[in-house]
Amino acid sequence: MDFTQSPQISYRRLFAPLAVIGTGLLTLIALVGQPLVTPVPSTPPPVAPARLEAHVKKLSVDLYPRSFDRAGNLKRTAAYIAEQFKEAGALVSFQDVVVDEAHFKNVVARFGPASGRLLVIGAHYDSYGGTPGADDNASGIAGVLELAHLLGRSAPARPVELVAYTLEEPPHFRSRHMGSVWHARALKAEGRDVELMLSLEMIGYFSDRPGSQAYPLAPMKLGYPDRGNFIALVGQFGDFGVSRSVKAAMSGASDLPVYSLNAPGAVQGVDFSDHRSYWAQGYPALMVTDTAFMRNPNYHGAGDTFDKLDYKRMAMVVQAVYAVAKRAAEP
To answer: Are 120 and 194 in contact (CB under 8 A)?
Structure first.
């Protein structure tokens, strides 16, 4: 540094690059986390926590286990889901998922008009190995079932498909055999205009204990809570507008905090559910999640039981997703 120069000029040269870097980091944080989204207030109908608990208990106890090698239990689970969809007033169908000549089923419930930009909301109903799978993912299915009953009482102005997927868990995870792959591929083949897909992946585990929330990247602790008391929206890096719109609707529907993350698939956990199947077809998709193993110590274990879940906050998640389903389709 030339100390014969004006100190003011020297300081400017020193700090100008730092200011540029700082501005860049703030911009990146704003894009990745969408911290300043303004909630869009709404008043969704109430969701009974007891009904959510009854669904989760049915799936994780009466229909246990729901792993791919228990075809009979998966068949009974699909039948239970279809029965609930029909009771809600949906147009219900089954979609074949064929793996090595074995037949599995996605269950599809349709609401609203037959044409228009489609909103898909789905959750997988199989569980990992011999685990009860209460949070993973009976919670997501319970949310979809109660959402069906809400939509049945007040039909959406746009087409909505609620889908219960088979074969999300290993050994079929990330393979062409996932039920969501079959559904997303069929929509593409039909030329359907899909505005958005939401994957409900573990929505029932919450904790107010300090330090209960972990993150895939250490710097995230600077911008996100250290307690697992929120619901997360996870999307691709680049789908910032979609995340903002959904986050605004969900944040205005209940008192449950909503945090979001738009990141590359290389970040651990970002593509760990059925939404990835829609990304592969070029459709925008987001995961709605309690962050799974980043929070829930019972993930993929025998302790993932129905009594560990928070059904009051889970009900708020369903209300938040309902707010998304009832909004007008975006052009």
So the answer is: yes
d(CA 185, CA 191): 10
CB 124 within 8 A of CB 292: no
Q: What integer pLDDT is reported at residue 329 of this predicted model?
A: 75
Structure tokens at 15: 């700090």
Q: Which helix (H) or strand (E) holds 173?
A: none
Radius of gyration in angstroms for the set of CA atoms belonging to the chain, rounded to a whole number: 21
Q: How far is CA 161 from CA 59, 85, 91, 274, 310, in A?
A: 21, 11, 10, 14, 26
Domain regions of the chain by residue span: 39-326
d(CA 167, CA 256): 30
Query: Residue 59 — very low, low, confident or very high, per pLDDT cuts 50/70/90?
Result: very high
39-326: CATH topology is: Aminopeptidase (3.40.630)
What's the gap between Cα 124 and its chain centre?
11
Q: How many CB atoms lie within 10 A of CB 156?
A: 19
Tokens 């809600």 locate to 88
Alpha helical stretches, state H, 88-155:
140-153
Residue 283 has pLDDT above 90, yes or no: yes
pLDDT one-digit tens code per residue, 84-130: 999 999 999 999 999 999 999 999 999 999 999 999 999 999 999 99
Residue pair 275/247 in contact (Cβ under 8 Å)? The answer is no
Taking the complete model, does pTM exceed 0.85, yes or no? Answer: yes
Cα–Cα distance measured from residue 140 to residue 273, given in angstroms and rounded to the nearest whole number: 11
